[in-house]
Amino acid sequence: MMALNEIEEHLELQANSQNEKLILASIILIAEEHSGSAYIDYIKTHPLTAKIPLPSLYRGLNVLIEQKKIYHIGRERSGVYALSDDDITL
Fold first, then answer.
1. How far is it, in rounded angstroms, from Cα 80 to Cα 77?
2. CA-based Rg of the chain, rounded to a whole angstrom?
3. What is the pLDDT of residue 12?
4. What residues pair up with 81 in beta bridges, in sequence order?
5. What CATH code would you report for 16-83?
6. Is the pTM of this model over 0.90?
7. Buried/exposed 38-77: b ≥16 CB within 10 Å, e otherwise
């Protein structure tokens, strides 16, 4: 089993904020339960991200998209996200 800092290195998350790491972790967990998709309503209410203010949550999603760790599915306001790399797991 990898230590937390090894996981962060493997996923190249050392420079990411704590919120971005929590958002990515929640998307990984949600996507595993929902056929590879993570809906924004689930992300907002997930125990890892429920306390993140919405502006910070959306900023974190945009950063993860820019880093190509996740991508947005559908139209601009669809609110569906997926992992960019199928090898990302917790």
1. 8
2. 12
3. 78
4. 38, 72
5. 1.10.10.10
6. no
7. bebebbeebebbeebeeeebebbbebbeeeebbebeeeee
